[in-house]
Amino acid sequence: MNRVRIRKAVNIFILAAVIVSWLMMTLFGHGTLSENGLGTLRYFTLQSNILEGIASAVWLTGIRRDGSAGDMTERFKYIAAASVGLTFATVMGFLGPLYGYPAMFTGANLFFHLIVPVASMAEIILLSEMDYSRRDNFLCMIPPLVYGAVYLANIGINGIGEWPETNDWYLFLSWGYPTGILIFAIICLVTWLIGLMMRKLNRAGH
Fold first, then answer.
1. What is the mean pLDDT of residues 19-35?
2. Which one of 10, 19, 57, 111 is most buried, by most CB atoms within 10 A?
3. pLDDT at position 67, please?
4. What are the phi and psi torsion angles at 67 (to 5°)?
5. For residue 167, what is the DSSP state?
């Protein structure tokens, strides 16, 4: 089985995993921690996985006879992989120790927190033949930047609110706006580092 066939299989798997896991979470509440139904859409975990699912669908529909999918599509895959990589890093380094790894890998979250992120990053590192640039690396920060801007803007417009109806569902502003903004800056930096790691390992394998 050549590289292109393996990538096709990986992308079909990622797309199916995202769709099925989202339906499990939305319709049946399998794997949710603090929200059910469409309310799960407000979390970066789900948004990053949906982004990766869309990127896989775009890659599958854009694949050419020579096995290439175009630079824009490859960049999209790279950015999406960095986003789910951030979800994976957050779970492994922060949420897992805080709430326990079994809770993080229950039901749909097994795919959203572990399987889809690892498969997505591994695809970029091992299977992509794109020579990602430093500019591409910086583009990886777009999803968390957009998410952070909307998150803070929503709080600025509607207020923080009271738990459990709070608009600060990640509790980033528990120590004030400066700390919240710093947290988002660190999140963007971590995403950039994940992109850098994938780019370096990908290049080393060429």
1. 73
2. 111
3. 66
4. 90, -5
5. S
